[in-house]
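Researcher: I'd like a structural prediction for the single chain below. Treat it as a standalone chain; there are no partners to consider.
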Amino acid sequence: MAPIATLSCKESFTISHYLNSPHLSNTANKKVYGECANPAVHSHQYTIEVITRGTVDTSIGTVMSLSDLKSLLRTTVANQLNRKNLDYDINFFRTVPSTIENLAIFIWQAMKQEMSEPELLYEVKLTDNEENCVIYNGSGGHVQRNGQMNLTSDTD
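Model: Treating it as a single chain, here is the predicted structure.
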């Protein structure tokens, strides 16, 4: 049996946003998101860790080329998001609240779309600070159907 391993890579980036669901009233947004619902945006320094998992390729001795993973993470995620306002600069967040969970889903989908072997993507871990993080493994995502955003499984 071939050995299975995980390989991960980290990158940091800064974004700004404010939390607002188009499905809620201003009062409900303030109740759910607190101070983060203030339209005077605030910023975060995030660290994203992309974790791959698969059979160790005997020709290179790893799950995939680490330099390829680093390059993909940098070009697909960090360079696209760094110093952006999620709510105004990234189309995905025009109809989806820019929560840390939805940002992880967005990153998962972006990585999956660009990877030559998307089945190797195991999970993404997005850390806001030492106290807040989300781990997402593709078990659901946003898909737009008939003008509505729906949560669906990654395999749909």
